[in-house]
Amino acid sequence: MTHLTGLIGYPVSHSLSPRIHAYWSAQHKLDADYKLFTTAPARLRQTMLHMRKKNVAGVNITVPHKQTVIEYLDNVDDTATRIGAVNTVINQNGTLIGSNTDAYGFITNLRDGLGDLTAYLKNIVILGAGGATRAAIVALKDAGAGHITLTNRSPEKAQNLADAFQVECLPWSVRNNLLAKATLIINTTSLGMEGQPELSIDVSLLPATAAVHDIVYAPLETELLKNASARGLKTVDGLGMLLYQAQKAFELWHGILPAITPELRAHVMESAV
Ligand code: ATR
């Protein structure tokens, strides 16, 4: 019996996840499939009913369903509850469990790029207040983050997150003033993505020991990372977050922790550009 998995979202057609999961399934000779389920909000309930079938191992959930899917699940684990969003559902004999592998993906990618995080976690500046930001904050707190400052174009979204997670929140207009003491800055906005405006941040204001992380992965090297590298700062791109959140989901569904290798990165980026 084929173990069915996939991605529920709206839209999902540009997702790189099928390519990642197919690569691992072939590597481990699993009879598994990863399908794209384009699901408009009004059809989410019905789609989730189908996910209780025997041959479904589980699904990933993406925009705009990460929060609304919760009402169609039987249980939500601790991490997903704290983040307030589900990106992975596991079907345990007809019982649907909600989890969130984005926090794992985020922090594992950061460790991969920077090694021991202790020094970098002291004074973190996060740009943005979207869905990915929530997972990043939970992961950073679990990793022992010191001070976290959040800044976002829409102040009310930043304030909501700041209240929910007990972090500091400052206006978007003063973002450059936050850099002088930062040990790590993280772009969680969509700025710098292909087709989007650049993020305007003056990396020359950062200390020489600071690191810069961009969760954007298309392009792999954003202007932000390019400027930071040119200054000699350590940088981490966003592809690893995508790969590691997929790695954890694959393990939850199939009981195998697949490897993330340079070959896999190249295979995934082939279709991203
Ligand atoms: P997701 O939930 O997938 O992370 P999102 O909620 O749309 O996506 O978040 C996108 C982030 O990029 C938000 O922080 C958004 O800022 P707003 O909350 O003000 O919308 C940020 N963003 C997008 N375009 C931006 C722009 N032109 N300038 C500044 N921030 C921008």
Short description:
By secondary structure, the protein is an alpha/beta fold.
Helicity range:
25-40%
Q: Quickly count the helices.
A: 9
- State the strand order across the main sheet: 2-1-3-5-6-4
Mean pLDDT across all amino acids? 97
Tell me the structural class: alpha/beta
DSSP strand (E) fraction?
Answer: 15-25%
Taking pLDDT < 50 over at least 5 consecutive residues as the criterion, the unreliable ranges are none
The main sheet comes to:
6 strands, mixed
What order do the SSEs take from the amino end to the carboxyl end, as H and E?
EHEHEEHEEHEHEHEEEHEHH
Task: Give a description of the structure.
The structure is a single chain. The two termini are 34 Å apart. The chain has 9 helices and 12 strands. Strand 7 (123-127), helix 5 and strand 8 (147-151) form a beta-alpha-beta unit. The model has no long low-confidence stretch (mean pLDDT 97). The strands form 2 sheets. The chain has a 6-stranded mixed sheet. Strands 9-8-7-10-11-12 form a 6-stranded parallel sheet, with helices on both faces. 35% of the residues lie in helices and 19% in strands. The protein is globular. It is α/β, with parallel strands linked by helices and 273 residues long. The site of 2'-monophosphoadenosine-5'-diphosphate has 14 residues, from helix 5. 2'-monophosphoadenosine-5'-diphosphate (ATR) binds next to helix 5.
